[in-house]
Amino acid sequence: MDVHVLARGKMFGRSRSNRFPAAPQSFVGINYGDVADNLPPPTATARLLQSTTISKVRLYGTDPAVISAFAGTGISLLLGAANGDIPNFASSPAAATAWVAAHLPSSSSPAISAVSVGNEVLFGDTSLASQLVPALQNIYAALPPNSSVKVSTVHAMDVLASSDPPSSGVFKPELAAALDPLLAFLSKTGSPFLINPYPYFAYLSDPRPETLAFCLFQPNAGRPDAGSGLTYTNMFDAQVDAVRAALDAKGYKDVEIVVAETGWPHSGGADEAGATVENARAFIAGLVSHLRSLAGTPRVPAKSVDTYLFAVYDEDLKPGKPSEKSFGLFQTTTLAETYPTGLMRNGTAGLGPTMAPAPSPTHPVRPSPALVSPAPARVPGQQPQLTPVQPGSAAAAGPSALCAPGTATTTARGAAAGCSNPNAAESSRTVSVLRILAGAWLMCLLI
To answer: Which family is annotated (predicted)?
Structure first.
């Protein structure tokens, strides 16, 4: 049960309750990519997300229209700086200061929770490794006094040398020169370790029925970890705990883990086993239910890890296999759910028809993630970039792939190396909608 392969599998309360939480969950977020030519306006996406229990959005860039669309929504943003910006930030404190001044709102709305400087740099663009921490330090130093904004960078599961069983999780020794100062920075500033685990890629490496159940939070026999005496019932927990073990082994038990990307494609090519609507629904609904249970992981119980789902919409311009374009939880034209997720506050499938699609993005597109194992590389969530990148690499934007059980495969999704990509935002709901939802919630409580 390689940690790289472990992702999610356990079916914590697979049968979702018909009572939909009225308030956002602080631990549930979503990635918003824009590598598409049919996306609705940011304001429409903002309204859509406000009708869900999602409380945070990860962007791959700093599009002013997207950021402003979230003002007044109560949804916090995780902004992204491109891999290509790292050298400039590292060598010039003035450049870092200018970036912060230009992209972080001067007001308190929308709230910016964190900034990710680069995406999967240590996996897809090792030439930037030595410049990563100086860049982070300069961005952090440029923040306003007493700022609560965290500064970090996103990693692929490939940073791990071992993950099976989870208790054996350790970072690759060859990354120590870059990782050691990075971990010291995160500990000193109270910033999280951002990771991209993808159970889907683990399944691709080991497409057996029992592995699928383990990845989809469905009933399974469980997988014991002889090293810790703990038993795992899903891949997601196993992957997260492998990273936790690696951090603990380095002496950084105080560094929090945040899942920057994870998801499951609802369609794919003939050679992409498991990329179906049924499996995507089982994974997302199972994961959301698991997070809401506050069960935590076997290694860190009773505390749900902050998790950003991938992604708001399908991205039809993304390179790579068909599945790379098919991670969207919502339809771009109707704003209806692609499949039931359990995320809607009122139990409905969306907001209905939206406004005309926004113009196609003109900035670089992020590449898709690739697997460390023989399985094909994927890039869910990633944005294409100007310089081609291997799917699944840090340069590729989108969901990062996890190795299948016993393998060392990983994929990256979300941001492409050297390019940034803004995502959509959401706006507040009307008073009438609030009244309807409040009434529906009251009825549920009375039933």
So the answer is: Belongs to the glycosyl hydrolase 17 family.
Residue 100 CA to residue 140 CA, distance in Å, equals 9
**How many structural domains are present in the chain?**
1
User: Which are the contacts of 8, defined by CB distance < 8 A and separation ≥ 6?
Assistant: 197, 199, 215, 216, 217, 234, 235, 236, 237, 239, 262, 283, 286, 287, 290
Q: Which helix (DSSP H) or strand (DSSP E) does residue 150 occupy?
A: strand 150-156
CATH of the domain at 161: 3.20.20.80
In a domain, 77, yes or no: yes
- Which residue is catalytic, options 120, 256, 315, 324? 120
- Residue 397 falls within a domain, yes or no? no
Residue 363 belongs to some domain of the structure: no
* Active-site residue identified among 174, 210, 256, 261: 261
- The domain of 163 spans 28-330
Of residues 367 and 258, more confidence is placed in 258
Active site residue 278: no
Task: Report if residue 239 sits inside a domain.
Answer: yes
Q: Which two tokens stand for residue 323?
A: 């599945």
pLDDT digits (tens, 9 = 90+) for 30-52: 999 999 999 999 999 999 999 99
